[in-house]
């Protein structure tokens, strides 16, 4: 059970291959990584506010910690062998998670699918085999833990006020809830990696490590950032700007 002793073990590739698969599946479910992500949106929808905050801020990051702490040091040959496959899954998570987020009408489900996309950036950074990628993955997990948890708190405040999470019923909340509107704006800008935010540093190094790994991977991951900006600004604009919905005036 001594981690330093385990690091010094030189296992044959055959054993590394199967150990890597079993370990990575366990971490991928917790992460969550596509195709093991289906439980996350439903868990956030059904969970109370405190559960969503803990899930987004702490529990999801345990999978990323496992990737960093165990897979590469313990199974380096298998880590190298599976890198193209994991990078492909990460890119799918980034694009699929972003596009799926764009069509969500439930606030908590929207934030949950955005987490799938952001965790794709984390796994991509880990498997780029670079110091920048390692730093980026750690920074991204920390930054996402704060911004995503904050967005869930904002969603919880709105739900306690109006008793619905359906986005189409919201509009013009800036007038009714100006302080929450400002706080949510800061969290939304952080979530998309706006300059001067913690997320910006993490996403910058993630894209840098992606381009160093492959220009094609860098282009696809950059497209994921554009999609992330679209759904985040739509989320904020739809809820806080415009004329107040009649539903909210009842």
UniProtKB/TrEMBL annotation:
One biological-process term from Gene Ontology?
ATP synthesis coupled electron transport
Reactions mediated catalytically: a ubiquinone + NADH + 5 H(+)(in) = a ubiquinol + NAD(+) + 4 H(+)(out)
Localization: Membrane; Mitochondrion membrane
What EC number is given for this enzyme? 7.1.1.2
Q: Where is this chain primarily localised?
A: membrane
Q: How does it sit in the membrane?
A: Multi-pass membrane protein
**Which parts pass through the membrane?**
15-40, 47-68, 74-98, 110-128, 134-159, 179-201, 213-236
InterPro entries (UniProt xref): NADH_Q_OxRdtase_chainM/4, NADH_UbQ_OxRdtase, ND/Mrp_TM
Keyword annotations for this protein, in alphabetical order, are: Electron transport, Membrane, Mitochondrion, NAD, Respiratory chain, Transmembrane, Transmembrane helix, Transport, Ubiquinone
List GO molecular-function terms, semicolon-separated: NADH dehydrogenase (ubiquinone) activity; NADH dehydrogenase activity; ubiquinone binding
For this entry, the protein name equals: NADH-ubiquinone oxidoreductase chain 4
């Amino acid at each position: 059970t001594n981690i330093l002793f385990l690091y010094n073990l030189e296992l044959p590739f055959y054993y590394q291959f199967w150990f890597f698969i079993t370990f990575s599946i366990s971490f991928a479910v917790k992460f969550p990584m596509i195709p093991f992500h289906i439980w996350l949106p439903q868990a956030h929808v059904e969970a109370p506010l405190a559960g969503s905050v803990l899930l987004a801020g702490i529990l999801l990051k345990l999978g990323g910690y496992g990737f960093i702490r165990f897979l590469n040091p313990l199974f380096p040959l298998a880590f190298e062998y599976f890198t193209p496959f994991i990078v492909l899954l990460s890119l799918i998570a980034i694009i699929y998670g972003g596009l799926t987020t764009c069509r969500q009408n439930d606030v908590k489900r929207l934030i949950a699918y955005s987490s799938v996309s952001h965790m794709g950036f984390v796994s991509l950074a880990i498997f780029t085999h670079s110091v920048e990628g390692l730093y980026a993955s750690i920074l991204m997990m920390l930054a996402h833990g704060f911004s995503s948890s904050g967005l869930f708190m904002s969603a919880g405040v709105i739900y306690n006020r109006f008793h619905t999470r359906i986005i189409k019923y919201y509009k013009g909340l800036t007038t009714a809830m100006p302080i929450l509107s400002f706080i949510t704006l800061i969290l939304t800008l952080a979530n998309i990696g706006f300059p001067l935010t913690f997320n910006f540093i993490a996403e910058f190094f993630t894209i840098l490590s992606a381009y160093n790994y492959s220009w094609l991977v860098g282009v696809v991951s950059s497209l994921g950032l554009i999609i992330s900006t679209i759904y985040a600004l739509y989320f904020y604009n739809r809820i806080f700007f415009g004329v107040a919905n009649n539903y909210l005036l009842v």
